[in-house]
Amino acid sequence: MSTEQLLDIDPPVLSLPFELRRVRRQVSCTIRLSNKTQHRVAFMVVTPNSQNYGCEPNHGILSPRSTCDLTVTMQALEEAPRNMQCENKFLIQSLVVSFGATIEDVEILFNEEGHHSQSGLLNAEYIFPCQVQSVVPNGIVAGIIIVMLAIIFFYIVKKTLLLIWSLILLFIMLTIKLIRQSTLDAIKNWISGTLCDIFVDPLCRRLQDIVHGFERNRDRDTDRDGDRA
């Protein structure tokens, strides 16, 4: 039992989203402790700085083959560290306890001498915005993307159809206007031709006849004056 690992810690490195205090007051992440043994195992988490870090719960007892999720919170930083790295470490202690032990006994058991406990250091690192992975499942993300693409597609199709119908209506209106103009021109030409046939042409022929009559009379008068001479 002395060589048996009591707890599995997941993740092996604690990833803390990097945030400045002017953006957000605090950030959080989750640690999962798994008891893979057949024993009851007590645990206690020691944070590097109680003012900046918190862990809930920070101690407890895991039944055999059970797990426990811990929420680690970190107060957002006032300013970015010089090397942009997190140098803090979390100490996670564990030991086998009897079936009669309670959660209230955990801190006392770890402080008492004679108990063989295991200790593990959990390193922490900052995750910057470009490295933060989405907490939304990939399926939901894909669904959201598909819905957004569908909305954009239908919006474009709607605008395109409106443009097409507008162009069709404009073409129809221009065609009707041209037909009306052609019809009016044809009616005008017909009216003009009819008026010419009824009034203008007979009048012109009549005037020509009168002119020709005057010319013939003038020619006869000229011939008579010649004969008398």
Report on the structure:
This protein has 229 residues and is of the alpha+beta class. The chain has a domain at 7-127: Immunoglobulins (Immunoglobulin-like, Sandwich), CATH 2.60.40. It has helices spanning 106-111, 138-228; strands at 7-10, 13-17, 26-35, 40-46, 53-56, 59-62, 67-75, 89-97, 117-127. The strands form two sheets. It has a five-stranded mixed β-sheet. Residues 131-136 have low confidence and may be disordered. It is built from two helices and nine strands. The radius of gyration is 52 Å and the shape is rod-shaped. It comes from Fraxinus pennsylvanica. Pfam families: Motile_Sperm. One of its GO terms (cellular component) is endoplasmic reticulum membrane.
Strand content: 25-35%
CATH class wording of the domain at 7-127:
Mainly Beta
Strand order of the largest sheet: 2-9-8-4-6
Corresponding CATH architecture of the domain at 7-127:
Sandwich
**Backbone CA Rg:** 52 Å
Kindly summarize this structure in a few lines:
The chain has 229 residues and is of the alpha+beta class. The chain contains two helices and nine strands, in the order ββββββββαβα.
